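quick one, 313 residues, struct below
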Amino acid sequence: MNERLQKLIARAGIASRRRAEDLIVSGQVEVNGKVVTELGAKADPEHDVIRVAGRRLRFPERPVFLALNKPDACVSALTDPEGRPTLREFLHGVSGRVYPVGGLEYHSTGLVLLTSDGAFAERLFRALGRGLPQTYQVKVKNPLSREQMETIARRIGPIRISRSGPNPWYEARLAGESKERLRKLLLELGHPVEKLKRVAIGRIELGDLEPGRWRNLSETDLRGLDQDLKRPFRATRRPEARAVAGAPETVSYPAPARPGRRRPPRPLGPGRRKRPSAKPMGRRENRAGATGAGKHPPDKRRGRKFHRKGKSA
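---
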């Protein structure tokens, strides 16, 4: 891909773009052995040899962002201690090490994102935990009734039919742990999930990607995903909120407050005594129980105090 020379020089860490323009105009930049002095000149960093003041430019490796269609009976990891098939078997032609983010169950299929950028992977992982929307297609046993679909919509989220038949497919846009709640609810309604497929994560869609195949994410995909990661997501409703007596099912309940961390008491070792509890501030009491200032009257004690400071009465 051809890019402007000043942009390539800045990306290589040689100089800023403005300083790179001065280097080009002064005739210190060569492309494939030819001196280039035009500011609008472009070059391909993968095929052209670019030198600045006789020094060849070395570009850092770009991070890899992949979308893979996970097949059935596959672990969403690169290794498995039990020897089962992993995603590594489908990453032929990928240079460098990539990490899967947002894995699926062993028998679930669909979209899995992989990247070599650790910081981006951590952002995506946290966004999935905060409720980044994900679109799933589920195949259930026997069609759902209208009342059952309304129940699912109230408790978890909207659901619509995507493929009719004796065992139809439904599509739902879920967030957080709603996927497992959908499984349990469908089982309670008498329609167990036979197959589950993820077709989208945020704005990244699976499309017509064949099972076991992968593709590089485009710049448009990355920009859209970056905007999704910056958005604040609503926390999903807790399943126990539905059991509140008299509360409508469409009401969202706030998350419980996290209790403050209290410092555990220190154990009493040998030679240590338990300190008495502090008394409320007030007038002091003598041993006889009468209120007062203590052993000496206030006037005498005050006089002794001033006497010590050299200010006797």
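The CA atoms of residues 158 and 172 lie 6 Å apart.
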